[in-house]
Design goal:
The chain is of the alpha+beta class and about 150 residues long. It contains three helices and seven strands. It has one domain (about 10-150): Nucleoside Triphosphate Pyrophosphohydrolase (Alpha-Beta Complex). The protein has a four-stranded mixed sheet with strand order 4-1-6-5, with helices on both faces. Helix 2 (about 125-130) packs antiparallel against helix 3. The chain has helices spanning about 45-60, 125-130, 135-150; strands spanning about 10-15, 20-25, 35, 35-40, 70-75, 90-100, 115-120.
């Protein structure tokens, strides 16, 4: 039986002005730390997907203009254990990268069915902790984005 999940997703790096990065521990895979991620649903725009996933996974409601679209996408192979969620024959996903700068004191309310815990780490430590190469690479690029957009 195949699923209907779209192979299009977002990765949202939530960080503070001093580049502390929010990480979430996956409930289905304890120890698999990650940034906010999620698949596009229906006809929603990518920014709306990023906003929805940010709200669902952290409790943070954000305006579209608060999210920085990196205009970067990554294609990666979907782990075999998760392929049944997608239509038959789908083996790869396209992930679009966004970031969101928030104050460190922002209240994070995780979705317990999705995540077990959250933590803030300096960007280098966060890059070392995440399980996904796309998440790691985006975190490693965060200081360059910060230099290019001082207001982010």
């Amino acid at each position: 039986m195949s699923g209907s999940k779209k192979p299009v997703s977002v990765l949202v790096l939530i960080h503070t002005p001093d580049l502390q990065v929010l990480l979430l521990d996956r409930a289905t895979r304890p120890g698999f730390w990650q940034s906010v991620t999620g698949s596009q649903e229906g006809d929603e725009s990518l920014v709306d997907t990023a906003r929805r996933e940010t709200l669902e996974e952290t409790g943070l409601a954000v305006a579209p203009e608060a999210l920085i679209d990196w205009r970067l996408s990554n294609r990666f192979e979907i782990f075999p254990q998760w392929r049944q969620r997608y239509p038959d024959g789908v083996s790869h996903n396209i992930e679009h990268v966004y970031s969101l700068c928030v104050p460190l004191e922002s209240e994070i309310i995780i979705a317990p069915h999705e995540h077990l815990a959250h933590l803030w780490l300096p960007w280098r430590a966060a890059a070392d902790k995440v399980f996904s190469w796309t998440n790691r690479d985006a975190i490693l690029m965060l200081p360059l984005l910060q230099q290019a957009s001082p207001g982010s």
